[in-house]
Structures are given as structure tokens and as C-alpha cells.
Amino acid sequence: MNSVRNETLGWRRGLAVLGALALVLAVSGAPVRAQETIKVGILHSLSGTMAISETSLKDVALMTIDEINSKGGVLGKKLEPVVVDPASNWPLFAEKARELLTQQKVAVVFGCWTSVSRKSVLPVFEELNGLLFYPVQYEGEESSWNVFYTGAAPNQQAIPAVEYLASKEGGGAKRWVLLGTDYVYPRTTNKILRAFLRNKLKVAEADIYETYTPFGWTDYQTIIAKIKSFAAGKATAVVSTINGDSNVPFYKELANQGLKATDIPVVAFSVGEEELRGIDTKPLVGHLAAWNYFMSIDTPQNKAFIAEWRDWVKKNNLPDGEKRVTNDPMEATYDGIKLWASAVDQAGTTNVDAVRQAVGYQKIMAPSGFMEGLSAQNHHLNKPVYIGEIQADGQFKVVWKTKGAISAEAWSPYIADDRGKKADWTFPWACGNCTKAKYSLY
Known about the structure:
By secondary structure, the protein is of the alpha/beta class. The protein has helices spanning 2-28, 51-70, 90-103, 115-128, 158-166, 184-199, 221-230, 247-256, 273-276, 300-315, 328-347, 352-359; strands at residues 37-43, 78-84, 109-111, 132-134, 147-149, 175-181, 208-213, 236-241, 266-268, 288-291, 363-365, 371-373, 386-390, 396-401, 422-424, 431-434. It is globular and about 65 Å long.
């Protein structure tokens, strides 16, 4: 709490100093040269195991910046993207983040995919009081003064997906496979799901099989054979938190072993249209993904989003241009940049402290067709939830959705140590990991 209080008091002192300096310059007649552009950082892996997923986020960020610039920019200035490639190297994410904030002097950063990359950069943003917009579903259990989470928290993706699969409509699964890449997001998400399965759905421990593979893993033959053996005799579902290019061999092996959705459905949290683009999806028809957006959603906002994307791809001669698709993290990136730009216009400055307060009150009619807004309280985006079935053309058919946008829970109510915790960054209170009681800064 003291660090937050000191940061706040320091901000106020800083404003006073800046005001005094501006007065001195005005009186002395010294020229004040305004920055001609506003630099924004784009921090995504364009090489390595995560490039399959993150390259499109870089591209859609550039598209959104072009759109904003075509309409006059922000505060009358053009946005200047500064793109860096951490190359799926988690420590390098921190180095690149520091470079963006200290050398490039960016006003904001849009980036990261894996939670390990976000955890890597988090101390940098908190130390330097930078602002990060994180656009991918994650495991929760975090709320930072310096991060806005535009991807899904577990109650906006993982929990609804498991509830659906356990329902009669979703097949009534009684036995569960929790399969993921071996890092923080899958392990923490599965910790939450295991607690939910045991305590809420009353699933026996013997009916849960949990296993992990390293990043870049390619040999799923043995694992899928074990899944088939484990499933014998009970309705079984696989919850996949595999990330990156390992999804390609995983889904290919599903097809090789004839594991159909009617036998053992797989629901994925990190597989969308982009990851399926290079796979023969005909054998995978009926397997599921849970997201907050699908390219197949039929709304005027989504039609406009897709048309803008296709035009931009064609104009910029991107590889596989006609095959490029949209997906959930791309929409979350697009929404986040729009919300940040709106907040800057409202605040009248790119000052991080001023923008941070303004962002929490912005809303956008998203391509999903829902009015989505960032919470000033917990820095998460309110989002709808969709469950889609893989189709032969690599798109998804929506089979279930929420009636409206769902508010994110930064801390899971299914984890005993989390009960009573809340994230609240609204003034005059501020805490990222506190109990129901609020504590004054003053």
C-alpha cells in the first residue's frame, strides 16, 4: 500500500513541477516543441513457437493504428507504432518492454500472449509506471495498477466451457482430461478447474486426468492413446490449454487416431481460426473452442471489422492474404487500442496516470455485437462468452452463448485462498490483492 501511496503523491508532486516549468518557459519565451507523433509499443513474438498466434495480433494492431490515423489520430497527432520481436523468449520480453518504455518513450504498450511473457514484463511496467494492454485469455489471480486485461478471465471462458460440457446439451461429461502446455496459464487455470470440478460438480479425483507438455511439443501419440484408455466406460471431455504451434501436431494426432468429437469432445482455450488455418479440419468437426468472439458471428460490427481486415491485408500484401482470418485475441487487441485512444482523447493527454483513470470508463460496441467496457475497479473487460464447434472450413459454428457481457473475476471464488479477495483500483481506494475491506490511501 505504501508504494501505491508514494506513487500517487509522487504523481501529484510531478504535476506541480511540470506546471511550474511550463510557467517558467512561458514567461521566458523559450520555445516548446511538441512531439510530432505519439509512439505506441507493439510487443509480440514474430518468431519462435508463439509466432503462429502472435503475428496476427501485431498485424491487427497496425491496422487499428492506421484506422485511427486516417481519422486524424489522437489529440491531433498521428500514432507511431514501434514493433519489437521478443521471439518467444520470456526473459527477452522484459528487456524489450524496458526498451520500449525507457528508450522509445512509448505512451502505451499492446502485447504479450502467454502468461509467462506477461509475468516477465509485469515488474518492468510497475517499476517504470508504464501501461500494458494484454489481449489474451488468462488464468486470473492477478490485478495490476499498470495492466488492462482485454482477454478473458476464467469465469469468462474456462468455467462456462466446463459447465457446458457437463450439461446435457454439451454431452454430460463425467470424466475430465486437463491437458496443457507446461507453464503458468494452463497450470493455474487447471487448478481453478479442478477445484470447480471437485467442489461444484462433485467430480471424483479418479475421474480427473491432468498432464502437461513443453512448449513446442510435437509427439502426442502416447498422450492421446492414454486419453482413449482413461475415457473407457464414462462420458469424457478434454479441456485443452495447449498453446502455440503444438496445437498443430495435437490436432493432427487426434485425426490420426480417429478421436472424434462424438467420442471424446475437446474444448480448447487457445485455439481459434488462426491456429486452425494450416490444418485439415474435416476430421476435427464438432470439437469445440470457448472464446468471447468468433469470426463467424453475424453482426454488423463484425462484418465491418472483417471487411476492414481484408482490405488492410490486401493493401499491405500480407502473406496468404486471401486466407487470413480474424480471431478472439485480434478482436481484443482492436478493442483495447480503440479504448485507449478514446481515453487519451477524454483525458487530453497521454500521461499514464490520467489515461489510466479515463480508460476505466470507456465503452465500445465490439465486433462481438456487445457493448464492452473496461472496469475502472479491476482493469478487466466485460465480455460475452461463446462456445463454437469446429467446421470443415476452419470456422466455428456458435452452439452456446451468454445473454450479455459477463463481468470478469480477477480472483477465483473456487480457490479457498482467494475467497474474499477483490481487485479495486478506484480512487480514493486502491488495492490489487486485498480483502473485502478497503483501505484509504490518505
